[in-house]
Amino acid sequence: MAKIVKTGYARIKEGCMSQAEAQPMHDQTHYLLTEIEQNIGKGVPEYTDVLSWAFEKIGIIHFSYVYVGYIPSEVDKAIILGNYPKDWVKTYESMALYRNDPIISHSSTTSTAFFWEEAVGENQNSKQIFDMSAKYGIEQGFSVPVHEPGCAFGSIHLATNKDNTEFQKLVENNSYLISTISYIAHQQRPSLARLEPYPPLTDREVECLKWVAMGKSYGEIALILNISERTVKFHAQNIIKKMDAVNIKQAMTKSLRLNLI
Prior knowledge:
The protein is an alpha+beta fold. The chain has helices spanning 9-22, 25-39, 44-58, 86-94, 102-107, 124-134, 167-173, 175-187, 203-213, 218-225, 229-242, 248-257, and strands at 62-68, 79-82, 114-115, 140-147, 153-160. A hairpin with a 5-residue loop joins strand 4 (140-147) and strand 5. Helix 9 (203-213) crosses helix 12. The longest helix is centred in the N-terminal third of the chain and has 15 residues, at 25-39.
């Protein structure tokens, strides 16, 4: 089995298409996954090219990988990779639509893959976003969420226009392969789509934060730990700074989401 060494979508297709088509169906899944793992790389061009090639082999043209570090409605930025129409991605990012996108919101609350119709409600935000995406042929789709400890997560989104009546059957017939590719895509995502770690908390800071989470005041924590209240406040300020929070309650919330305490 030859490894893809060329970059660029056309070259990837040139290097692999004939080999995949020549193999029996039961071998193609293994071949496809092997090629993805060997060639997805860590850079954005290779990542996008290899996944574009892989999903096209299944029969799916449009895909995107979205990485969100926290609860979607609270994030300042989402990382979006893939081959969706560039004008739509630019609009989506500039308007921060990921904060209200029902597909991203649903992805944040489930680890089960789903067709978009299962997540789209009747609210105005849903209608507005889908009215906008329809102009670019993004009208129906299928998403695979991949969660990490805490609340950070990535998700693969496959999309097509509303006239593609074979889309649902295509996805159902290739559900295992799509799920596996999605997992690989998340694990091998480029470094820019990774949550920047916070500075580590010291043992004493973790200890203080645990008592804060239990509703104890600084004075009570001081008595419990046999230290001065001033020292507790010192630790609290360090925690707030490290967690990039505005107060100790927000720092505690972030720490809980990230399983730091």
